[in-house]
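ok so heres the complex, two chains, lmk if somethin looks off
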Amino acid sequence: MKLNVNGVERSVESLALTSLLVVLREELGITSPKAGCQQGGCGACTVLVDGEARRSCLVPLAAIDGAAVTTVEGLGDPESLSAVQAAFHEGYAAQCGFCTPGFLLATHALLAHTASPTRAEIERALGGHMCRCTGYVKIVEAVEAASGGVR
Amino acid sequence: MASEVLLPTSPAEAVAAFGDGAGVTVLGGGTIVMPEIAYGRAALGRVLLLARSGLDQVTRSDGAVTIGAAVPVAALEGGDEPLASAAAHVGDPEIRAQATVGGNLCAGPGGEAPRGDLQAPLIALGARVRSTGAGGERVEPVEDFLAAGGGRLVLDVSYDAPDAAGYAAAWRPHAHHATILAAACARSGGQTRVAVTGAGPHGLRCPSVEQALAAGADAATAAAKVLDDVDPPDDALASAWYRKRILPTLVQRAIEEAR
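and the predicted structre for the whole thing:
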């Protein structure tokens, strides 16, 4: 099977029902998606599949053969962060960092659909993402900053 | 891991691949089956993936709506009530985009909490399930499909849009994916149908409430009859006592919204 991961065509050998999370982390060595609960409840594994936010732990490889996958590694690099990454960095929106990749990708998907979301829309879109440091206020503020809202 | 993975690319191929269903696990969106695999709890034989089955179509004609089994729950948000409100109450946007209508219809109790939030709204709408399996294709009311206990492949569900509808659910914090208790109500041609989620092994119709309404009872009096229809369970999220306390209130709110 094939995946386009962060713009690079990759052939993958994992079994058909292997989760995208395991394919990314264990076969392709892409470790930004985190194995949190592995039952769809925490959002730490969220990546973009064909531009949409998806829990990679719930996606079997065979269901997305040929899809385009974006992880944090495809958003930016330390010299040129994406606007969302920069807003999280400047706004102290990461503490331990375990949930951050999921929040970043979910925020990218949100802003792709809704350029200037209200606070309620942000909370709705990110409501399935758990931050074990409970740093939600800074995260929501960073999303607002990234969308051109209040800094 | 599975002994065989089937990936049909049309509804006809899905029907053929499912056969009589013996030894087949159906994987719609993956929100139920994938955690079972991740935690090594699933002993899988053949696994049938619906991702490319073409069972993801929604069709409408003259108020009649047909929803394919692989339609994501998110596609129901903003559509007909009480289905739309129940859909918006499931999980979070990413889960709703992935979870399917067919999977929700087939979801048994999850052990720690109820599942299958769309079952009560579909019962209230008088929806019919088209399924395949042993004995071939079958169309039956949702409540009959649920009572039969599964083992079949859902192809689609269909209903006629109601004149009015109501939905009321117990409030839940964002971090909870499960709806502990909800009531759904739909009125068509002067008849009102009522069903509840979270008060039994699957969504349940409430004939005593419906009969009271048909006899002219007010919403509160009719809603109190719900305790004649269901025997709610204890689970990790709520006790049976609590469910019995708040269920009549939710049923009353759903009825009043559908007036």
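quick notes: The CA atoms of residues 25 and 86 of chain B lie 26 Å apart. thats all i got rn
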